[in-house]
Structure formats: C-alpha cells, structure tokens
Amino acid sequence: MRTDTARRVALLGVFVALGMILSYIEAMFPIVASMPGIRIGLSNALVVYLLYNCDWKDACIYQVTRILLSFLLFGNLFALTYSAAGAVCSMTVMLLIKRIKRFDTAGVSACGGLFHNLGQFLVAYILMGAAVVTYLPVLVFSGVLSGYLIGWLSALLMRYNIMKD
Amino acid sequence: MKKEHLRSLILVIVILSISGGALLVQHMYGKRSSVLRVHVEVEGNCILDVPITEDGTYVVREGTLTVEPEKSRETVETVETSGTVETAETSKTDGNINVIAIEDGSVSVTEANCSNHICVKTGNISKSGETICCLPHRLIITLTGNGEVDGFAY
Predict the structure, then answer these.
(1) What is the average pLDDT score of chain A?
(2) Which end of chain B has the least Cβ crowding within 10 Å, N or C?
(3) What is the ipTM of this complex?
(4) Do B53 and B19 reside in the same domain of the chain?
(5) Are residues B81 and B93 located together in one domain of the fold?
(6) A145 — contact with chain B (CB < 8 Å)?
(7) Segment A3-58, tens digit of pLDDT
(8) Which architecture characterizes domain A5-157 according to CATH?
(9) Interchain CB distance below 8 Å, B153 and A135
(10) d(CA B77, CA B85)
(11) Quick check: is B152 in a domain?
(12) CA distance B14 to chain A (A)
C-alpha cells in the first residue's frame, strides 16, 4: 500500500481536514475554550491512529500540515509556536514510548498529551517568564487526562483501518 | 496485552495524583500570590504597596505615609459627618492630605483636601488595572495583579 502515493496523499488530506474540523468543533465547547492551554485534543486521536495504523512519517506529515494550515487560516504566530513545540515534543515522546512496547495505546497517548503540554509550557516559560510556573500542575493534569481518554478513543477507531485494504 | 493496559493505567493515575496534589496545594496556599496589590505613588515615588486583603486606613500627608491606628478611623468618620468641604478647608494648613481606605477587597479615598475631590468621587476600585488619581496632589493609586496567564494555543 505504501507504494501507492496518490492514495496515501488523498487519505492524509482527508485526515488533515478531519483534524482541523475536530479542532474547530472542540473550540465550541465553552468550558474548554475558556481555559487557556487546555484542550480535549480530538485531532490528536488521529495522530495516534496514524502512528499505529500507518507509520510515524504519516503522523508527522499530518501534524506539520495541520499546524501550518491552522497558521495560514488563523494567522496566529503565537499559536503556531505553541502548537509546533507541543507537536515536536509529543511526537518524539510517543515514538520512543511506542518503541519500548511497555504501554498500550492509551498510555502512549497519555505521555504524548503530557509532553505536548510540557512543550507548550516551555515556550510559555521562554516567552512570558517564571510567572507561568503556577500553571504547570494544571497543564500536567489536563495533558495526561485528555491524552489517556484520547488514547482510548483512538484505540476504538483503530478497529477500522482504512489505510490498509 | 493486559499487562500493558495495567501499566498505562498505573502511570496515568500516578501522574494525575501528583499533579492533582500539586493543584490542591496551589489552591490552598497559592491564593496569596494571585491577590491584587494596592500600589500608591506620589510624584512618581512608591510609598505603599500592600495586598488588597489587608484592611486598613492610610493617611498620606505631603507625600509621606502615616498609618492610622484603629482609633483614628473613628475620628475620620466623625470628620466625615461634619462635612468634607469643611474639613478640607480646616486642614488646609496641614499640607496635602489623602486618606486611603482598604476594606473588603476594595480601595477608596475617603477623604482629601485637594481642590477638586475627584479622587474621593472616584469611589471604590477593586479590579486589576483600576486607578484612583489625585492630580492636585500628584497621587496615583493602582491595583496591580500579578501575571495571569493569557493567550491560548490551537
């Protein structure tokens, strides 16, 4: 299947579109939208899905495209920095943890969520200084919790493998 | 397979309880750090910077601060009943006076002998960034909050 480039490009395009719509939908939940730095991360379910059902390159392509497109659409440079830092951290950690094969999908996803938020925290720390440290427990808590739940969601999605057939 | 589920669950619970504990501690003890501060300047010099939670009455006389003990608040109140205009005139000889009261999370200038009394008429301020100005006496009261995190990421 991997040789079929056109099919791969088309499917990844669909994934990116789906991911952006999911980000939009979750931004409409008022409770979530009111807390800075806290997201459900529905679009991250697709990253985990791609990571398991395809390979890490697909997942990286998905992340890069989605973040760049969000930047082009909303034009928020700060958001770009934050999400890029979060994505780099979470992708690296998820790849490593997946490789050691000690944790299930939800565990890998929880670590991804944790390090996504830690990456964003790092950027916030550099940009805004030590005042953001008080926000760290919230970020760790929400990152792990949402990552774990999203991991379960993507494990459910993985029963339907559209990339292989 | 089962083992991996269990490991993940334990990992998540451990991290959640650690950060949850930190949140709890922060919630109980961290309040003090997120409280507003009352910042008073006269002619550019900071003469007072206290948390808004500390009730008290302060008298600023000619740019210097004198903390009024509890009993003087009664005299302030009795003076108030006799009329502000009158006290302003009678105390003119004492120099520039503003009386700042911090009470129940809000700040006001209860008495002043300045020419326009705009500081007194401003009333209570209680939110971050709000100010009371007394231009004749070059006095500025500002409520400063410390860095709330703003900004969000997609």
Answers:
(1) 87
(2) N
(3) 0.81
(4) no
(5) yes
(6) yes
(7) 688 888 888 999 999 999 988 888 787 766 566 667 788 888 999 999 998 888 99
(8) Orthogonal Bundle (1.10)
(9) no
(10) 14
(11) no
(12) 10
